[in-house]
Amino acid sequence: MVDRGWSAVSDAALIRVNGLDKRYGTTRVLRDLTFELKKGGALVVTGPNGAGKTTLLRLLAGLTAPTRGSLDVALDRSRLGFLGHEPLLYRELTALENLDLYGRLYRVPERRERIGMLLERFGLWDARGQRVAALSRGMTQRLALCRALLHDPELLILDEPHSALDTDGAALLDDELGARAGRGTLVVATHDPARLERLQTAALALARP
Amino acid sequence: MTAYLTDVATLARKDLRLELRARDTLPAMVLFVLATLVVFHFALPQDAGDDAAYGLLWIALVFTALLGLARAWVPETEAGALDGLLLAPSDRSAIWLGKTIATFAFLAVAELVALPAFALFFAGLDAAALAGVVLASVGICAVGSLVSAMAAAARGREVLLPLLFLPLAIPLVVGGVGSSISAEPGTYLAFLGLYDAVFAILSWAAFEYVVTE
After folding, report:
1. What backbone torsions phi and psi does residue A192 show, to the nearest 5 degrees?
2. For B18, which of A62, A90, A147 is closest by C-beta distance?
3. What local confidence, expressed as pLDDT, does residue B213 receive?
4. Any idea what the Cα angle at residue A149 is, between residues A65 and A198, rounded to 5°?
5. How far is CA A5 from the centre of its chain?
6. In terms of Cα–Cα distance, which of B46, B43, B25, B47 is closest to B35?
């Protein structure tokens, strides 16, 4: 594991992980992981396939529980945005219906304006009436990003967000992340850390346990 | 409380919209219950009497509900949408309640077709029997939405769902048949009401633990 930019334990830490282990049955995925991330920081998580990047991000999002150790994210889950390997969308609902559903559940103020702005920004306005099942993989990823950003989260957790995006889509995402720099906290798992170098305040290189 | 009910309504409306668009649950339930009643009509001896027919009605209703429950969480598992709902700030029991209401609506539509067909093929249902159908349906959907969520997260879900659901449905069948054929149906209706209250509260409280590790 490479530590860069880690602070000692401090009150400003948004994420505190201490002695974290995660097993699925007899398979150990994460082993004795300890780190902190300050509010406003950007943590880039790298590692080979099977190193536990996705599991770590799911742990941080509260979608799975640690087997051992402690994990504290000092944030209400309404302030957390998550993009996983799957889009977390309903395939038979349209792009607009999906965002409207999540906008209602997150009680997004001025929901329709916010949804319209995100769809325009990510080049999906013309596809707003299409079912997710009919969208290409790249367009689905753009829509999943809109869903993750819909409630303007304070902590954004992204699992390989550039995957499936074309050049324009990847540039849009880079712009969005750049605009959020310093304003929110970011945790990104990626196989292309160079792309996030200018945002990164901390790095975590995982190895297979 | 208002926010909670708003979330429940949003989630139930989403399920109804999904079904209106995909039409992959309700038509199957209606066709199944009609086909089952037709088969029973020809299989049951002429002199079998109404009591046996009421028993078969409940078999048809329980397996029709099982058909709907098997599909209940498919939209949530297809593209990880359940994770999206779990991440939302709404109370997680609202997800269960929304699903229960939607499943009840599908089962009610199937019953609206099945009960006249039953009256045509076998015998009519009195007010007590109809109340039994409503109360048992509430219990079926409350418990079924919970166990189908458990099964959806597991391997071998097609096998697991009936194994979990059918033992829990036995008291509902006893209450339902009793309310249809007993001279004193009030006891059975009270039993069904008690079952609904107890298992709805248990399912409501347990849902969060079922869907999170």
Report:
1. -130, 70
2. A90
3. 63
4. 90
5. 20
6. B43
- Whether A183 and chain B come into contact, CB under 8 Å, resolves to no
* Mean pLDDT within A145-156: 96
B22 versus B175: the higher-pLDDT residue is: B175
Q: Which of A64, A78, A90 has its CB closest to that of B81?
A: A90
CA distances from A88 to B41, B122, B172, B209 (A): 45, 47, 35, 20
The pLDDT score that the predictor gives to residue A52 is 93
The pairs formed by B160-169 with CB atoms below 8 angstroms and a separation of 24 or more are B161/B66, B161/B69, B161/B70, B162/B66, B165/B66, B165/B69, B166/B62, B166/B66, B168/B143, B168/B199, B169/B62, B169/B65, B169/B140, B169/B143, B169/B144
Q: What is the pLDDT of residues B27-80, one digit of tens each?
A: 999 999 999 999 999 998 888 888 889 999 999 999 999 999 999 999 999 888
Cα A21 from Cα A43, distance rounded (Å): 19
**Contacts A144 to B, Cβ<8 Å:** none
Q: Using the beta-carbon criterion (under 8 Å), do B22 and A92 form an inter-chain contact?
A: yes
CA distance A142 to A149: 11
pTM across the whole model = 0.91
- Rounded Cα distance between B211 and B148, Å, is 11
Q: Find the closest chain B residue to A22 by CA distance.
A: B213
Tokens of A141: 């990823």
Give yes or no for residue A6 having a pLDDT over 50: no
**In chain A, alpha helices (H):** 53-61, 95-105, 111-121, 137-149, 167-180
Instruction: Determine the pLDDT at residue B49.
Output: 80
CA distance B60 to B83: 34
pLDDT in tens, B135-159: 999 999 999 999 999 998 887 888 9
How many CB contacts within 8 angstroms connect chain A with chain B? 77
Average pLDDT value over all residues in chain A = 90
When CB atoms are compared, the residue of A64, A84, A104 closest to B80 is A84
Phi, psi of A182 (to 5 degrees): 80, -25
Q: How close is the nearest chain A Cα to the Cα of B138, in Å?
A: 25
List the 64-93 stretch of A: residues with Cβ below 8 A of B: 64-65, 76-78, 80, 82, 84-93
**Domain boundaries, position B192:** 2-211
Mean pLDDT computed over every residue of chain B: 93
Q: What percent of chain B has pLDDT over 90?
A: 82
CATH of segment(s) A1-75+156-209: 3.40.50.300
